[in-house]
User: Which sequence fits this backbone?
């Protein structure tokens, strides 16, 4: 029996991001923008790093609306 080898991983989250670059691959910027947009729109989403909840933070006068992960503390803005 011969083991199967995966030459390259399938594009992650390609179906979730409308503006994916040619070939169906998603850039890091597109993926993070998608997470931030989903958090702002739906109130929370899954963190792409630790899979905890990412929730929007309150907008301040000096900073635009952002989102922060409840698990790893990652911040998106």
Assistant:
């Amino acid at each position: 029996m011969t083991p199967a080898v995966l030459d390259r991983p399938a594009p992650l989250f390609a179906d979730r991001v409308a503006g994916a670059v040619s070939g169906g691959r998603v850039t890091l910027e597109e993926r993070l923008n998608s997470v931030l947009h989903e958090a702002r729109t739906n109130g929370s989403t899954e963190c792409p790093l630790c899979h905890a909840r990412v929730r929007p933070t309150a907008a301040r006068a000096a900073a635009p609306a952002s989102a922060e992960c409840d698990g790893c503390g990652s911040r998106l803005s």
